[in-house]
Amino acid sequence: MSQWREDVPTEGSVHLPPDAHALDGIGRNHSLETALADLIDNAIDASATEVVVRFVQRQGKLRSLYLADNGHGIAPAEIDSAMTVGGRRDYHRGSLGKFGLGMKAASFSQARSLTVLTRTPDGVASGRRWHLDSAADFRCDIVAPEFVMEEVDRDWGFKSSGAGGRTVIRWDDVTGFTATDDRDRVQSFLTATITKILNHLGLVLHRFLAKGALRVFVDVEDVDRGAIGARFEAEPLNPFGYHHPGNPGYPKILTAKRDGMSLNLACHIWPGRSKLAAFKLPGGAIERQGLYFYRADRLLHAGGWDGLTVADPRLQLARIAIDITDDIAGLFSMNPEKSRITVGPDFAHLIEAARSADGSTIGDYLRDAESTYKRSRERSRDRRKMLPPGKGFEPSLKRAIGDEIPFVDGEEPVDIRWRRGDGLDFFVVDRESRTIWLNDRYRQSIIGEARGGLNDAPLVKALLYLLIEDVFRGEYLGAKDKDNIALWQEVLTAAVRSQLARSTRQ
Ligand SMILES: Nc1ncnc2c1ncn2[C@@H]1O[C@H](COP(=O)(O)OP(=O)(O)O)[C@@H](O)[C@H]1O
Ligand SMILES: [Mg+2]
Q1: 343 forms bridges with which residues in the sheet?
Q2: What percentage of the chain carries pLDDT values higher than 70?
Q3: Is residue 246, in this structure, part of any structural domain at all?
Q4: Maximum separation of any 2 CA atoms in the chain, in Å
Q5: How many angstroms does the Cα of residue 35 sit away from the middle of ligand 2?
Q6: In a domain, 387, yes or no
Q7: Closest residue by CA, ligand 1 atom 1
């Protein structure tokens, strides 16, 4: 047996660039919406204030997808490195870019061809294209300058000049598009896809969108008609966007410090049984309990406990926000799609060591989240059943009432309507037709500037419903009910007459 040698002897070398099929394989974990989010990260890094996602349809069929932004563009000296797989630049603090991979991985996960067309604020344009079918020797096409100008100057509908430049990413041969040219089917594909895009971008970019730092639009261009259809705008979907916390002691910040690193856990408890989209989120609230990681304000990972505890319906109100700052970045690793954070072993130790100002721990928090959930279930079970609201209530008001109050089964609802009253009484309780009639003479002073209609005056109607619903129950009107009605009549009529006097005085 020969002696083991530390160094490997060589004689010369051969040049072996990666096979172009390597490009096919990158970004496999992307979906259309995560891929677009990655391109928008680049626009944010380039100080864009507006982004447009545009589907292009010709003869019914979807052909291309564009993503245009009003950021600072790419200088000609930088564009080749921007197109290079793994081509990195100097990243400033807070930059969302990292691996020099994002744009290429995102694009090739969805399309066979990626074209980048860009113009800097001083008007210098450049364009490059990768096509997977002809990338065999890694030759990247240089786009004709006139065409670059034409594309960047298309009508993108920007409302402001942003950073003064413009970048357009164009995908052709999009693999995820439906292949049909049947307009109805394309339309349903677009509706579903655009909804998914708006939801995902609304979620991962919610901090940017809520600050007003960025607006994201989605539209569809029909090139045969030369027309751009309706525009949709992404709305912020804040996974911590409740109105009141489910437990008054929250949110609580738990902090762990070690080796100069400081990890902050913002522990939130949602109110029970919330119907807000921000609670349900795509995927469902139960799936979305747990940790939410942000890096430079971009949400990277939405829910899951990463081994900290196990998912449980009773913990569905618990969500923790963690901002990954540069000094603690070493605790985590991020997949190249930037859609998942993996925590290292130190993370679990730090979490166990974390304390709030009042000394409480992660265990205390989880117990509080669980008991808040249990209490919210008990409360709704114990509530007295009521007759449902019927005509005269706005649908959103009916929903809010239904979320809070269990209804008596199989009973006619209570309506609230306006009609001309003979006297001055504000309302009439009509048990026969199960209606509260409001005296029309006070209508204008109650609704003020608002438009009248069947469902007007929601506040007054909600109050009357809560007050009066009870007297519609039972076989006959008892003495106590009659006295209550007389009392309400006196007080409310005095109140509404005083309101009328004030509104006519102005
Ligand atoms: N919309 C854009 N505006 C300006 N520059 C961009 C844009 N998209 C991409 N770039 C440039 O291309 C480079 C490569 O992007 P990418 O592949 O996503 O890698 P990374 O963002 O990690 O650097 C970026 O670093 C940036 O310089
Ligand atoms: Mg990037």
Answers
A1: 332
A2: 98
A3: no
A4: 116
A5: 10
A6: no
A7: 43
DSSP per residue over 297-330, as a string? TEEEEE-B-TTSS---GGGTTEEEEEE--GGGGG
CB-based contact 250:367 (threshold 8 Å): no
Both 186 and 334 in a single domain? Answer: no
Indicate the average pLDDT of the chain: 91
Residues 306 and 434 in one domain: no
Ligand closest to the CA atom of residue 170: 1
List, chain by chain if needed, residues with CB within 6 Å of any ligand 1 atom: 42-43, 46, 69, 71, 73-74, 78, 82, 89, 97-104, 167
Asked if residue 506 has pLDDT above 70, the reply is no
Structure token digits, residue 238? 């804040």
**Total domains present in the chain:** 3
| Structural domain for 431, as ranges | 395-505
- CA 356 to CA 66: how far, in whole Å? 47
Query: Do 229 and 301 have their domain in common?
Result: no
Residues 6+ apart with CB under 8 A from 396: none
Angular region, 86: left φ>0, alpha ψ -120 to 50, beta rest:
left
Which ligand 1 atom sits closest to the C-alpha of 67?
A: 1
Span 99-107, average pLDDT: 88
32 touches 176 (CB < 8 A) = yes
What ligand has the least distance to the C-alpha of 79? 1
CATH code of 146's domain = 3.30.565.10
Of the candidates 52, 51, 33, 55, which has an alpha carbon nearest to the alpha carbon of residue 282? 33
Tokens of 421: 């009253």
- At 320-335, the pLDDT tens digits run 999 998 888 888 887 7
Report pLDDT digits (tens) over 385-425. 999 999 999 998 998 898 788 899 889 999 999 999 889 99
- Note whether residue 368 is domain-resident: yes
Burial of 478 per CB tally in 10 Å (0-12, 13-18, 19+): exposed
For 190, phi and psi rounded to 5 degrees? Answer: -65, -45
Ligand 1 atom with the smallest distance to the CA of 69 is: 1
Helix and strand numbers, DSSP H then E, in the chain:
14, 19
